Amino acid sequence: MNTVDVFPWNENFETGILLIDEQHKRLVHLLNQLAGHLAYQSDIPTLNNIFNELVGYTHYHFETEEGIWERFFCDDDWEIEHKSTHFNFVSEVSRLKGEAESLKPFDSVIEDLLSFLTHWLAFHILETDKRMAKAVLAMQSGLPLPEAKQQAEQQMSGGMKVLIKAILNMYDSLSGRTIQLMCEIKERQKVEGKLRLAANVFDNTLDAICFTDTDFKVIDANPSFCQEAGYPNADVLGKNLRQLKPGLTDENLAEGFWETLKQRGHWGGIINNRYKTGEMTADWLTLSAVKNHNGLVSNYVAIFSNVSNLVQRQQTLERIAHHDALTGLPNRLLLRDRLELAVANAERTHTLLAICYIDLDGFKPVNDQLGHAAGDELLRIVAQRFLAIVRSIDTVARLGGDEFVILFGGLNHGYEYLALLDRILTDISQPVQIKDNVVKISASIGVTIFPDDNNEPELLLQHADQAMYQAKQKGKSRYCLYGGEPFGK
User: Against a cut of 0.70, is the pTM above it?
Assistant: First the structure.
Protein backbone atom coordinates (compact mmCIF):
# COMPACT_ATOMS: atom_id res chain seq x y z
CA MET A 1 0.00 0.00 0.00
CA ASN A 2 1.28 3.51 -0.88
CA THR A 3 1.93 5.97 1.93
CA VAL A 4 -0.44 8.96 2.12
CA ASP A 5 1.35 11.84 3.83
CA VAL A 6 -1.41 14.06 5.18
CA PHE A 7 1.27 15.46 7.51
CA PRO A 8 4.62 15.76 5.65
CA TRP A 9 7.34 16.32 8.22
CA ASN A 10 9.81 19.13 7.60
CA GLU A 11 12.41 21.03 9.58
CA ASN A 12 9.91 23.71 10.67
CA PHE A 13 8.57 21.18 13.21
CA GLU A 14 11.92 20.46 14.88
CA THR A 15 12.09 21.80 18.44
CA GLY A 16 15.81 21.25 18.97
CA ILE A 17 15.24 18.59 21.66
CA LEU A 18 16.13 15.28 20.01
CA LEU A 19 13.93 12.96 22.12
CA ILE A 20 10.83 15.09 21.62
CA ASP A 21 11.51 15.45 17.88
CA GLU A 22 11.90 11.68 17.45
CA GLN A 23 8.63 11.05 19.27
CA HIS A 24 6.87 13.72 17.21
CA LYS A 25 8.10 11.99 14.04
CA ARG A 26 6.75 8.68 15.32
CA LEU A 27 3.34 10.29 15.96
CA VAL A 28 3.39 11.78 12.46
CA HIS A 29 4.29 8.37 10.99
CA LEU A 30 1.35 6.70 12.77
CA LEU A 31 -0.96 9.51 11.67
CA ASN A 32 0.11 9.09 8.04
CA GLN A 33 -0.23 5.32 8.34
CA LEU A 34 -3.79 5.72 9.58
CA ALA A 35 -4.53 8.09 6.67
CA GLY A 36 -3.06 5.58 4.21
CA HIS A 37 -5.29 2.78 5.42
CA LEU A 38 -8.30 5.07 5.31
CA ALA A 39 -7.52 6.27 1.78
CA TYR A 40 -7.15 2.69 0.55
CA GLN A 41 -10.27 1.56 2.42
CA SER A 42 -8.80 -0.96 4.82
CA ASP A 43 -11.24 -2.89 6.99
CA ILE A 44 -12.56 -1.54 10.29
CA PRO A 45 -10.45 -3.82 12.56
CA THR A 46 -7.25 -2.63 10.83
CA LEU A 47 -8.24 1.02 11.20
CA ASN A 48 -9.14 0.43 14.82
CA ASN A 49 -5.81 -1.27 15.61
CA ILE A 50 -3.75 1.54 14.08
CA PHE A 51 -5.89 4.13 15.84
CA ASN A 52 -5.38 2.41 19.19
CA GLU A 53 -1.62 2.24 18.56
CA LEU A 54 -1.62 5.97 17.80
CA VAL A 55 -3.55 6.80 20.98
CA GLY A 56 -1.32 4.54 23.08
CA TYR A 57 1.86 6.13 21.74
CA THR A 58 0.35 9.59 22.30
CA HIS A 59 -0.10 8.81 26.01
CA TYR A 60 3.50 7.58 26.17
CA HIS A 61 4.75 10.74 24.43
CA PHE A 62 2.76 12.97 26.79
CA GLU A 63 4.35 11.28 29.82
CA THR A 64 7.83 11.65 28.33
CA GLU A 65 7.29 15.27 27.36
CA GLU A 66 5.78 16.25 30.71
CA GLY A 67 8.74 14.62 32.47
CA ILE A 68 11.11 16.87 30.49
CA TRP A 69 9.11 20.04 31.08
CA GLU A 70 8.76 19.28 34.82
CA ARG A 71 12.54 19.34 35.23
CA PHE A 72 12.67 22.89 33.91
CA PHE A 73 9.22 24.40 34.59
CA CYS A 74 8.17 22.72 37.85
CA ASP A 75 4.86 24.31 38.96
CA ASP A 76 5.31 27.10 36.39
CA ASP A 77 2.19 28.34 34.59
CA TRP A 78 3.63 27.09 31.26
CA GLU A 79 3.86 23.56 32.63
CA ILE A 80 0.35 23.69 34.10
CA GLU A 81 -1.13 24.99 30.87
CA HIS A 82 0.75 22.37 28.84
CA LYS A 83 -0.63 19.53 30.99
CA SER A 84 -4.10 20.99 30.59
CA THR A 85 -3.64 20.97 26.81
CA HIS A 86 -2.73 17.29 26.91
CA PHE A 87 -5.76 16.53 29.07
CA ASN A 88 -8.10 18.39 26.70
CA PHE A 89 -6.62 16.50 23.75
CA VAL A 90 -7.29 13.12 25.37
CA SER A 91 -10.85 14.20 26.19
CA GLU A 92 -11.56 15.29 22.62
CA VAL A 93 -10.15 12.09 21.11
CA SER A 94 -12.23 10.05 23.53
CA ARG A 95 -15.34 11.99 22.53
CA LEU A 96 -14.75 11.43 18.82
CA LYS A 97 -14.00 7.76 19.42
CA GLY A 98 -17.23 7.47 21.39
CA GLU A 99 -19.18 8.64 18.36
CA ALA A 100 -17.84 5.66 16.44
CA GLU A 101 -19.30 3.31 19.00
CA SER A 102 -22.75 4.87 19.00
CA LEU A 103 -23.59 7.26 16.19
CA LYS A 104 -21.31 7.06 13.15
CA PRO A 105 -19.38 4.42 11.18
CA PHE A 106 -15.79 4.20 12.43
CA ASP A 107 -14.27 5.04 9.03
CA SER A 108 -16.34 8.24 8.98
CA VAL A 109 -15.13 9.20 12.45
CA ILE A 110 -11.53 8.52 11.39
CA GLU A 111 -11.78 11.32 8.82
CA ASP A 112 -12.87 13.72 11.58
CA LEU A 113 -10.10 12.40 13.81
CA LEU A 114 -7.48 12.86 11.10
CA SER A 115 -8.53 16.47 10.56
CA PHE A 116 -8.47 17.12 14.32
CA LEU A 117 -5.18 15.28 14.91
CA THR A 118 -3.38 16.95 12.00
CA HIS A 119 -4.39 20.46 12.98
CA TRP A 120 -3.87 19.88 16.72
CA LEU A 121 -0.46 18.25 16.32
CA ALA A 122 0.82 20.93 13.94
CA PHE A 123 -0.37 23.73 16.23
CA HIS A 124 0.86 22.00 19.38
CA ILE A 125 4.36 21.48 17.98
CA LEU A 126 4.73 24.89 16.33
CA GLU A 127 3.07 27.03 18.99
CA THR A 128 3.51 25.25 22.35
CA ASP A 129 6.32 22.69 22.16
CA LYS A 130 8.68 24.97 20.18
CA ARG A 131 8.17 27.82 22.66
CA MET A 132 8.91 25.59 25.63
CA ALA A 133 11.85 23.95 23.87
CA LYS A 134 13.36 27.36 23.09
CA ALA A 135 13.08 28.25 26.78
CA VAL A 136 14.68 24.93 27.80
CA LEU A 137 17.60 25.48 25.43
CA ALA A 138 18.01 29.00 26.79
CA MET A 139 18.09 27.68 30.38
CA GLN A 140 20.62 25.04 29.37
CA SER A 141 22.79 27.87 28.07
CA GLY A 142 22.65 29.56 31.48
CA LEU A 143 19.60 31.85 31.50
CA PRO A 144 17.23 31.76 34.51
CA LEU A 145 13.63 30.70 33.90
CA PRO A 146 12.01 34.18 33.64
CA GLU A 147 14.60 35.42 31.12
CA ALA A 148 14.46 32.15 29.18
CA LYS A 149 10.67 32.46 28.90
CA GLN A 150 10.94 36.07 27.82
CA GLN A 151 13.52 35.19 25.16
CA ALA A 152 11.34 32.33 23.89
CA GLU A 153 8.32 34.64 23.67
CA GLN A 154 10.33 37.16 21.65
CA GLN A 155 11.55 34.47 19.27
CA MET A 156 7.98 33.24 18.77
CA SER A 157 6.50 36.72 18.10
CA GLY A 158 6.18 38.84 14.98
CA GLY A 159 7.07 37.04 11.75
CA MET A 160 7.08 33.63 13.50
CA LYS A 161 3.33 33.94 14.23
CA VAL A 162 2.63 34.62 10.56
CA LEU A 163 4.74 31.59 9.58
CA ILE A 164 2.82 29.42 12.09
CA LYS A 165 -0.48 30.63 10.64
CA ALA A 166 0.67 29.89 7.09
CA ILE A 167 1.82 26.38 7.98
CA LEU A 168 -1.37 25.63 9.94
CA ASN A 169 -3.53 26.80 7.05
CA MET A 170 -1.60 24.58 4.66
CA TYR A 171 -1.71 21.51 6.89
CA ASP A 172 -5.33 22.06 7.87
CA SER A 173 -6.45 21.94 4.22
CA LEU A 174 -3.80 19.44 3.13
CA SER A 175 -5.10 16.57 5.27
CA GLY A 176 -8.63 16.62 3.86
CA ARG A 177 -7.53 17.41 0.30
CA THR A 178 -4.86 14.70 0.17
CA ILE A 179 -7.14 11.98 1.49
CA GLN A 180 -9.91 13.07 -0.85
CA LEU A 181 -7.68 13.06 -3.90
CA MET A 182 -6.09 9.70 -3.08
CA CYS A 183 -9.49 8.11 -2.34
CA GLU A 184 -10.83 9.36 -5.64
CA ILE A 185 -7.82 8.02 -7.55
CA LYS A 186 -8.44 4.62 -5.97
CA GLU A 187 -12.16 4.73 -6.72
CA ARG A 188 -11.50 5.69 -10.34
CA GLN A 189 -10.40 2.10 -10.93
CA LYS A 190 -13.83 0.90 -9.74
CA VAL A 191 -16.47 3.46 -10.57
CA GLU A 192 -16.57 5.88 -13.49
CA GLY A 193 -18.68 8.25 -11.43
CA LYS A 194 -15.92 8.64 -8.85
CA LEU A 195 -13.58 9.56 -11.68
CA ARG A 196 -15.82 12.48 -12.64
CA LEU A 197 -15.95 13.65 -9.03
CA ALA A 198 -12.18 13.52 -8.67
CA ALA A 199 -11.78 15.38 -11.97
CA ASN A 200 -14.20 18.03 -10.74
CA VAL A 201 -12.18 18.59 -7.54
CA PHE A 202 -8.95 18.67 -9.54
CA ASP A 203 -10.34 21.11 -12.11
CA ASN A 204 -12.05 23.55 -9.75
CA THR A 205 -9.69 23.90 -6.80
CA LEU A 206 -8.00 27.29 -6.54
CA ASP A 207 -4.66 25.63 -5.80
CA ALA A 208 -2.41 24.97 -8.79
CA ILE A 209 -1.88 21.20 -9.08
CA CYS A 210 0.16 19.17 -11.52
CA PHE A 211 1.40 15.61 -11.92
CA THR A 212 4.85 14.89 -13.35
CA ASP A 213 6.89 11.88 -14.30
CA THR A 214 10.15 11.03 -12.53
CA ASP A 215 12.01 13.57 -14.70
CA PHE A 216 9.57 16.30 -13.55
CA LYS A 217 7.96 16.61 -16.96
CA VAL A 218 4.32 17.60 -16.57
CA ILE A 219 1.88 14.87 -17.58
CA ASP A 220 -1.28 16.55 -16.27
CA ALA A 221 -2.21 19.92 -14.76
CA ASN A 222 -5.40 21.56 -13.55
CA PRO A 223 -6.75 24.87 -14.95
CA SER A 224 -5.38 26.86 -12.00
CA PHE A 225 -1.86 25.63 -12.77
CA CYS A 226 -2.17 26.46 -16.48
CA GLN A 227 -3.57 29.89 -15.69
CA GLU A 228 -0.68 30.71 -13.34
CA ALA A 229 1.88 29.38 -15.82
CA GLY A 230 0.34 31.53 -18.56
CA TYR A 231 0.10 28.66 -21.06
CA PRO A 232 -2.81 26.58 -22.37
CA ASN A 233 -2.93 22.99 -21.16
CA ALA A 234 -1.50 21.61 -24.41
CA ASP A 235 1.62 23.79 -24.07
CA VAL A 236 2.13 22.86 -20.39
CA LEU A 237 2.19 19.12 -20.98
CA GLY A 238 5.69 17.78 -21.55
CA LYS A 239 7.41 20.87 -20.16
CA ASN A 240 9.75 20.48 -17.21
CA LEU A 241 8.32 21.76 -13.94
CA ARG A 242 11.50 23.78 -13.34
CA GLN A 243 10.85 25.66 -16.58
CA LEU A 244 7.28 26.53 -15.58
CA LYS A 245 8.18 27.34 -11.96
CA PRO A 246 11.60 29.07 -12.08
CA GLY A 247 11.62 29.35 -8.28
CA LEU A 248 12.61 25.67 -8.20
CA THR A 249 15.97 26.58 -9.76
CA ASP A 250 16.89 29.06 -7.01
CA GLU A 251 20.42 28.27 -5.81
CA ASN A 252 19.54 28.74 -2.12
CA LEU A 253 16.62 26.35 -2.50
CA ALA A 254 18.58 23.79 -4.47
CA GLU A 255 21.06 23.24 -1.62
CA GLY A 256 18.66 21.05 0.35
CA PHE A 257 15.50 20.77 -1.72
CA TRP A 258 16.35 17.88 -4.04
CA GLU A 259 18.20 15.90 -1.37
CA THR A 260 15.25 16.23 1.04
CA LEU A 261 12.82 15.14 -1.66
CA LYS A 262 14.98 12.14 -2.50
CA GLN A 263 15.42 11.02 1.10
CA ARG A 264 11.97 11.75 2.52
CA GLY A 265 9.78 11.57 -0.55
CA HIS A 266 8.24 14.98 0.04
CA TRP A 267 9.12 18.64 0.53
CA GLY A 268 7.10 21.63 1.70
CA GLY A 269 8.09 25.27 1.75
CA ILE A 270 7.79 28.71 0.17
CA ILE A 271 9.18 29.37 -3.32
CA ASN A 272 9.11 32.61 -5.31
CA ASN A 273 7.92 32.44 -8.90
CA ARG A 274 7.38 34.93 -11.69
CA TYR A 275 4.26 34.79 -13.82
CA LYS A 276 4.56 35.03 -17.60
CA THR A 277 3.32 38.62 -17.18
CA GLY A 278 6.36 39.39 -15.01
CA GLU A 279 4.45 39.56 -11.72
CA MET A 280 6.20 37.94 -8.73
CA THR A 281 4.29 35.56 -6.46
CA ALA A 282 5.07 33.51 -3.37
CA ASP A 283 3.73 29.94 -3.34
CA TRP A 284 3.63 27.33 -0.63
CA LEU A 285 4.68 24.21 -2.51
CA THR A 286 3.87 20.71 -1.34
CA LEU A 287 5.75 18.27 -3.57
CA SER A 288 5.20 14.58 -2.87
CA ALA A 289 6.50 11.42 -4.50
CA VAL A 290 3.97 8.77 -5.58
CA LYS A 291 5.25 5.21 -5.43
CA ASN A 292 4.02 2.17 -7.34
CA HIS A 293 3.24 -1.26 -5.89
CA ASN A 294 6.95 -2.10 -5.99
CA GLY A 295 7.80 0.87 -3.77
CA LEU A 296 9.49 2.81 -6.57
CA VAL A 297 8.75 6.46 -7.35
CA SER A 298 6.57 6.63 -10.43
CA ASN A 299 5.28 10.20 -10.30
CA TYR A 300 5.31 13.45 -8.36
CA VAL A 301 2.34 15.55 -7.26
CA ALA A 302 2.94 19.29 -6.87
CA ILE A 303 0.41 21.58 -5.15
CA PHE A 304 1.07 25.32 -5.27
CA SER A 305 -0.93 27.50 -2.84
CA ASN A 306 -0.52 31.25 -3.24
CA VAL A 307 0.65 32.78 0.06
CA SER A 308 1.83 36.16 -1.27
CA ASN A 309 -0.47 38.04 1.12
CA LEU A 310 0.79 36.06 4.10
CA VAL A 311 4.43 36.65 3.11
CA GLN A 312 3.80 40.37 2.66
CA ARG A 313 2.09 40.45 6.04
CA GLN A 314 5.06 38.64 7.60
CA GLN A 315 7.46 41.19 6.11
CA THR A 316 5.25 44.03 7.36
CA LEU A 317 5.13 42.59 10.87
CA GLU A 318 8.89 42.08 10.87
CA ARG A 319 9.39 45.72 9.91
CA ILE A 320 6.95 46.88 12.59
CA ALA A 321 8.74 44.74 15.15
CA HIS A 322 12.20 46.09 14.28
CA HIS A 323 11.65 49.74 13.28
CA ASP A 324 10.48 52.91 15.00
CA ALA A 325 6.98 53.84 13.79
CA LEU A 326 7.65 57.61 13.80
CA THR A 327 11.01 57.88 12.05
CA GLY A 328 11.35 54.51 10.32
CA LEU A 329 14.75 54.06 11.98
CA PRO A 330 15.80 50.76 13.60
CA ASN A 331 14.44 50.44 17.12
CA ARG A 332 16.15 49.11 20.26
CA LEU A 333 15.53 45.48 19.25
CA LEU A 334 17.12 45.81 15.82
CA LEU A 335 19.90 48.02 17.23
CA ARG A 336 20.95 45.15 19.49
CA ASP A 337 21.40 42.87 16.47
CA ARG A 338 23.21 45.59 14.48
CA LEU A 339 25.51 46.29 17.43
CA GLU A 340 26.42 42.61 17.80
CA LEU A 341 27.24 42.42 14.08
CA ALA A 342 29.25 45.66 14.23
CA VAL A 343 31.30 44.40 17.19
CA ALA A 344 31.98 41.11 15.40
CA ASN A 345 33.04 43.00 12.26
CA ALA A 346 35.37 45.27 14.24
CA GLU A 347 37.02 42.23 15.81
CA ARG A 348 37.40 40.51 12.44
CA THR A 349 38.76 43.55 10.57
CA HIS A 350 40.76 45.04 13.47
CA THR A 351 38.99 48.40 13.06
CA LEU A 352 37.35 50.81 15.50
CA LEU A 353 33.65 51.01 16.28
CA ALA A 354 32.22 54.23 17.73
CA ILE A 355 28.99 53.85 19.73
CA CYS A 356 27.36 57.27 20.03
CA TYR A 357 24.46 57.88 22.42
CA ILE A 358 22.63 61.13 21.50
CA ASP A 359 20.11 63.16 23.48
CA LEU A 360 18.60 66.32 21.98
CA ASP A 361 19.03 69.55 23.96
CA GLY A 362 15.98 71.81 23.96
CA PHE A 363 13.51 69.25 22.65
CA LYS A 364 11.11 69.35 25.63
CA PRO A 365 10.27 73.09 25.23
CA VAL A 366 9.35 72.43 21.58
CA ASN A 367 6.98 69.68 22.68
CA ASP A 368 5.52 71.76 25.51
CA GLN A 369 5.10 75.04 23.60
CA LEU A 370 4.28 73.89 20.04
CA GLY A 371 2.61 70.54 20.77
CA HIS A 372 3.43 66.89 20.20
CA ALA A 373 2.78 67.11 16.46
CA ALA A 374 5.56 69.69 16.17
CA GLY A 375 7.80 67.52 18.35
CA ASP A 376 7.18 64.51 16.12
CA GLU A 377 7.97 66.54 13.01
CA LEU A 378 11.21 67.74 14.61
CA LEU A 379 12.23 64.15 15.41
CA ARG A 380 11.60 63.12 11.80
CA ILE A 381 13.74 66.00 10.54
CA VAL A 382 16.53 65.14 12.98
CA ALA A 383 16.42 61.51 11.85
CA GLN A 384 16.82 62.58 8.22
CA ARG A 385 19.77 64.80 9.14
CA PHE A 386 21.45 61.87 10.87
CA LEU A 387 20.87 59.66 7.83
CA ALA A 388 22.42 62.31 5.56
CA ILE A 389 25.62 62.22 7.64
CA VAL A 390 26.22 58.52 8.12
CA ARG A 391 27.72 56.09 5.62
CA SER A 392 26.12 52.94 4.22
CA ILE A 393 27.94 50.77 6.78
CA ASP A 394 26.69 52.83 9.75
CA THR A 395 23.47 52.50 11.73
CA VAL A 396 21.14 55.18 13.08
CA ALA A 397 18.56 54.00 15.63
CA ARG A 398 15.94 55.69 17.78
CA LEU A 399 15.58 54.32 21.30
CA GLY A 400 12.52 56.41 22.17
CA GLY A 401 11.71 60.00 23.07
CA ASP A 402 14.55 62.23 21.85
CA GLU A 403 17.28 59.61 22.32
CA PHE A 404 19.18 58.18 19.35
CA VAL A 405 22.17 55.91 18.85
CA ILE A 406 24.59 55.99 15.93
CA LEU A 407 27.13 53.24 15.21
CA PHE A 408 30.14 54.35 13.18
CA GLY A 409 31.98 51.22 12.05
CA GLY A 410 35.05 50.42 9.98
CA LEU A 411 37.11 53.30 11.44
CA ASN A 412 40.88 53.17 11.33
CA HIS A 413 41.76 56.34 13.27
CA GLY A 414 40.22 58.42 16.04
CA TYR A 415 40.01 61.57 13.94
CA GLU A 416 37.52 59.86 11.62
CA TYR A 417 34.74 59.65 14.19
CA LEU A 418 35.68 63.05 15.65
CA ALA A 419 35.00 64.63 12.26
CA LEU A 420 31.65 62.83 12.04
CA LEU A 421 30.67 63.99 15.53
CA ASP A 422 31.57 67.60 14.68
CA ARG A 423 29.32 67.39 11.64
CA ILE A 424 26.46 66.00 13.74
CA LEU A 425 26.69 68.88 16.20
CA THR A 426 26.84 71.41 13.36
CA ASP A 427 23.91 69.99 11.41
CA ILE A 428 21.67 69.49 14.45
CA SER A 429 22.22 73.09 15.57
CA GLN A 430 20.88 74.46 12.28
CA PRO A 431 17.44 76.14 12.65
CA VAL A 432 14.38 74.04 11.80
CA GLN A 433 11.24 75.47 10.21
CA ILE A 434 8.08 73.83 11.62
CA LYS A 435 5.02 75.48 10.07
CA ASP A 436 5.20 79.13 11.18
CA ASN A 437 7.86 78.58 13.81
CA VAL A 438 11.64 78.40 13.68
CA VAL A 439 13.17 76.26 16.40
CA LYS A 440 16.76 75.59 17.29
CA ILE A 441 18.10 72.67 19.26
CA SER A 442 21.47 71.05 19.93
CA ALA A 443 22.70 67.62 20.96
CA SER A 444 24.67 66.06 23.80
CA ILE A 445 26.61 63.00 22.67
CA GLY A 446 28.26 60.26 24.67
CA VAL A 447 30.82 58.08 22.90
CA THR A 448 32.57 54.84 23.70
CA ILE A 449 35.04 53.14 21.36
CA PHE A 450 35.32 49.42 20.79
CA PRO A 451 37.74 47.64 21.24
CA ASP A 452 39.26 50.24 23.60
CA ASP A 453 36.10 49.65 25.65
CA ASN A 454 36.14 45.87 25.26
CA ASN A 455 32.77 44.91 26.73
CA GLU A 456 29.51 43.23 25.78
CA PRO A 457 27.13 45.20 23.49
CA GLU A 458 24.63 46.03 26.25
CA LEU A 459 27.41 47.40 28.47
CA LEU A 460 28.80 49.44 25.57
CA LEU A 461 25.44 51.20 25.26
CA GLN A 462 25.41 51.88 29.01
CA HIS A 463 28.89 53.40 28.83
CA ALA A 464 27.90 55.63 25.90
CA ASP A 465 24.80 56.70 27.86
CA GLN A 466 26.94 57.61 30.88
CA ALA A 467 29.25 59.67 28.68
CA MET A 468 26.20 61.48 27.24
CA TYR A 469 25.12 62.59 30.72
CA GLN A 470 28.65 63.87 31.30
CA ALA A 471 28.34 65.95 28.12
CA LYS A 472 25.08 67.47 29.42
CA GLN A 473 26.68 68.30 32.77
CA LYS A 474 29.57 70.03 30.96
CA GLY A 475 27.26 72.46 29.14
CA LYS A 476 25.50 70.47 26.39
CA SER A 477 26.06 70.81 22.62
CA ARG A 478 29.21 68.72 22.91
CA TYR A 479 30.43 65.16 23.01
CA CYS A 480 32.28 63.27 25.72
CA LEU A 481 34.27 60.06 25.56
CA TYR A 482 33.55 57.37 28.13
CA GLY A 483 36.40 57.15 30.62
CA GLY A 484 38.08 60.26 29.22
CA GLU A 485 37.94 64.02 29.48
CA PRO A 486 35.04 65.92 27.83
CA PHE A 487 35.86 67.10 24.35
CA GLY A 488 33.97 68.85 21.59
CA LYS A 489 33.44 72.04 19.74
Answer: no
